[in-house]
Amino acid sequence: MLLNSLMNLVPELNKAFLETLYMVAISLSVAIIAGLPLGILLFVTDRGLFLENTTVKSVLGFIVNMIRSIPFVILLVGLLPLTKLITGTTIGPTAASVSLSVAAIPFFARIVETSLREIDKGVIEAAVAVGATPWMIIKDVLLPEARPGIMHGITITTISLVSYSAMAGIVGGGGIGDLAIRFGYYRYDNTVMITTIVILICLVQIIQFAGDRIARLVDKR
């Protein structure tokens, strides 16, 4: 009986799993593209650094903290008009990717900023002393030195997005969370709930393992 239930669930599980990967891939790409420069900007405009600008730092910091302070479920619902404007719909994995991206950008930006703060200030001061331009310092000093921390940040962000994508199922975002709610919660099917939980645990373990290995490979310090 249990085996039959699982076999019947395989097509839905495959679809939900691919939708989850799709949502995570889109939002992680957006987070890296937008969050990496934002995190660098938060760091280099801080007091005592080579592009010090307290106004820019304060404004960006306020926006980042404001978005991060909103629980994801509320953010998900609040961004439905923007989602409708961008994607033309409010349901499905593509629509859910909008809210996931908005949540992931400030999250990853703060991780990047924290990774950059771990760099020895003497290294940055030495680069400034020899006349390196801000772009050269960022490209040749900050990013190489912070590479392992940023890689760990990508891993943490990916795992958080897997969790957020499950919550997106509440508003019909698709993915494993949507499957768990529709088949497991509404139909009181414990087999579906346990199966989705096991899949999510395995997925997170694989992401963490891969992220740790890559971080060690890129650490040339």
From TrEMBL:
Domain ABC transmembrane type-1: 17-210
Subcellular location: Cell membrane
Membrane topology: Multi-pass membrane protein
Biological process (GO), any one: D-methionine transmembrane transport
Keyword line: Cell membrane, Membrane, Transmembrane, Transmembrane helix, Transport
InterPro entries: AA_ABC_Transporter_Permease, MetI-like, MetI-like_sf
SUPFAM superfamilies: MetI-like (SSF161098)
Presence of keyword Transmembrane helix: yes
Family the UniProt entry places it in: Belongs to the binding-protein-dependent transport system permease family. CysTW subfamily.
Protein name: D-methionine transport system permease protein
High-level lineage: Bacteria, Bacillati, Bacillota, Bacilli, Bacillales
